[in-house]
Amino acid sequence: MITIPFFKMSGSGNDFIIIDNREAVVPENQLTQLVTGACRRKMSVGADGMILIESSASLDFKWRFFNADGSLPDMCGNGARCAARFAFLHGIADRQMAFETLAGTIEATVGDDTVKIRMTAPRDLKTGTQLDVEGTPTAVASVNTGVPHVVMVVDDIEAVAVTKTGRLIRYHPDYAPDGTNVNFVTVNENGRIFIRTYERGVEDETLACGTGNVAAALILAHERGLTSPVTLTTRGGGSLTVHFSTHGGRYRDVFLEGDARVIYRGDLWEEAWRP
Question: Is 82 one of the annotated active-site residues of the chain?
Answer without folding.
Answer: no
